[in-house]
Every structure is written in structure tokens, then in C-alpha cells.
Amino acid sequence: MNARQRERIAPWVAVIVLVVAWEGIVRAFSVPEFLFPGPLATARALVDYAGPIAIHSWQTFWTTMAGFGIGVVVGLALGFIVGSSRFLYQACYPLLVGFNAIPKVAFVPILVVWFGIGSVPAILTAFLICFFPIVVNVATGLATLEPELEDVLRVLGAKRIDVLLKVGLPRSLPYFFASLKVAITLAFVGAVVSETVASNQGIGYLMMSAGSQMRMPLVFAGLVVISAMAMVMYEFFSFLEKRLTGWAHRGQR
Question: Cβ contacts of residue 206 below 8 Å, gap of 6+?
Fold first, then answer.
């Protein structure tokens, strides 16, 4: 087995080891299901409640992707604006950091007052929590364009906008795709947090309802579903990154 094959099976081995250890601990200490269910109890809950889980999972997925899509558009546009000017970069970066430091769950009650209980607060919470890494990475990719390269392009007759669009943006693509992988996982966090507080649908609502009834296997089933959706989307953007920015990673194995 070569190194590449070992790298491919390593995550699966890690998952198997984790599941076996988890089930072993639960059985060894006779932990009740209503406190800490094992993998088998969680799997039974996934099967027994497959219908409701599927419905709530779809709700969480589309609200997350809606918020994530808004975050990509706003993050890319704002990152381009901030990164296109050193003055704007220095002026806006502290404001962005300060905004990102605010716990996004604090916005949920405000969003409920403005938009009511439902999908809109979940979408907006997902947006608020995921757009920051996109802005920062795109702005950083543009702001760190080598001065020597920019000087050469200016001598050749390129305008500032030409440098940004034809050199800066392509150079920022690795930063952009790296931010997408982080942002999509944060978007799921934002949507689920909002659903636990301000929704009557979604995995967050399902987990909160099940937890109040001490049906912990169903709660853990919800956690598994969220993790699975986040990992699938992460791998999707990782695939796009390798396909579209392979030139930035050549020589790496």
C-alpha cells in the first residue's frame, strides 16, 4: 500500500476506531441511553425516525445554502472592495474583526423581532456567521499582491482595475476556496443555532424538541446528520479547489 492509498483510507480508519471506542465505553460503563447513547442506539434512531429527520434535514440544508450563497456574494464583493485599496483595508479590517467577535446567537432575538420565527432568521444567521472568512481571505489575497509585480504591470500600461481583475483575483482564488471550506461549516452552525431558538423546523428544532423529551439517541442522530452534510459540502469545495486552483498547489503530494 503506497502513501496515497494510506491517506485515502486514513479518515475511514479514524472513524471506525472512534465508533468502536465510543460503543465500547458506553457498554463498559453501562451508560443509559437517555444520558449518552452509543453508535448503535444512534443508528436505530436514524432508521426509526428517517422520515422526520429527512424533512428537517432538507429544511436545514436549504436554509444553510441560502445563507451561504448570500455570504459568498457579499463576502466576495466586500472583500474585493476592501482589498483593492490599502487605505480601505487598514480602515475596515478592525471593524470586520470587531463585528466577527460578536456572538452571532445574540443577533437571533433581533432577527426574530424583525422577521418573525421561521426560515429567515436561520438564513440570515448562517450568512452573518459565514461571510467574514470570505471577506478576510479575498481582501488579504488582493492586499498582499507583490508590489514588484504591480509595478511591472503598471509599466506595461495596466491600470489598477486591470491589475486587480486579471492578476489579483486569480491570485486570490486559493484564498477564496480555502475560505469557502471554512465558511460552509460555519453556515451550518449558524443555521442550526438559529433553528434551536427561532424556528419550528430544521435539525436544530428537532434536536431541541427531542432533548426536551430526553430522546437522546434522536439528538445524536441529528448531530450525525449535520456533521455528514457539512463534511459532504466541505469535500465538494475541496474538490473544486483542487480542480480550479491546481496551479497553486503543483508539486505538492
Answer: 52, 53, 56, 218, 222
165-215 pLDDT, tens per residue? 777 777 788 888 888 999 999 999 999 999 988 888 899 999 999 988 889
Sequence-distant (≥ 6) Cβ neighbours of residue 145 within 8 angstroms:
163, 167, 168, 171
Distance from CA of residue 26 to its chain's centroid?
30
Q: At residue 126, what is the residue type?
A: A
Residue 109 has a pLDDT of 86
- The 3-state DSSP composition of the chain as helix, strand, coil percent (nearest 5) reads 85, 0, 15
Non-local (6+) Cβ contacts of 121 within 8 A are 108, 111, 112, 115, 194, 198, 199
Residue bearing cell 496515497: 4
Domain locations along the chain: 1-30, 37-248
Higher pLDDT, 70 or 117: 70
User: What letter represents residue 176's amino acid?
Assistant: F
Numbers of helices and strands, H then E, in the chain: 11, 0
Q: Collapse the DSSP code of 210 into the 3-class scheme (helix H, G, I; strand E, B; otherwise coil) and give the result.
A: helix
Residue for cell digits 431558538? 197
Q: Which residue has the cell 436514524?
A: 46
Tell the CATH superfamily of the 37-248 domain.
MetI-like (1.10.3720.10)
Residue with cell 503598471: 154
Phi first, then psi: give them for residue 84, nearest 5 degrees.
-75, -15
